[in-house]
Amino acid sequence: xxxxxxxxxxxxxxxxxxxxxxxxxxxxxxxxxxxxxxxxxxxxxxxxxxxxxxxxxxxxxxxxxxxxxxxxxxxxxxxxxxxxxxxxxxxxxxxxxxxxxxxx
Length: 104
Fold this sequence. Notes:
Blueprint: E1 5-9, H1 12-20, E2 26-30, E3 46-48, H2 55-59, H3 79-84, H4 86-98
Parallel strand pairs: 1-2, 1-3
């Protein structure tokens, strides 16, 4: 029987669908945080994780070999909440756009 790669991820459903799409059977190891440590610890050969800049991957000597999904983050609220909290929301948006964090 061919060897089955072990994949560490916090996203088992996404991972399973991705590999099934290629007809590849993998063993999925569900982890909570720090999936990038799994190969170094011998727990998995591959990881599926979110990588914003790739810095954590590089620090762990990992290389992106495929992009499974492009995503974006959205801030949403209803009209009433926006009217009531407009100044707070705009302050938060300003901090997010500048790379700062909210202290509230």
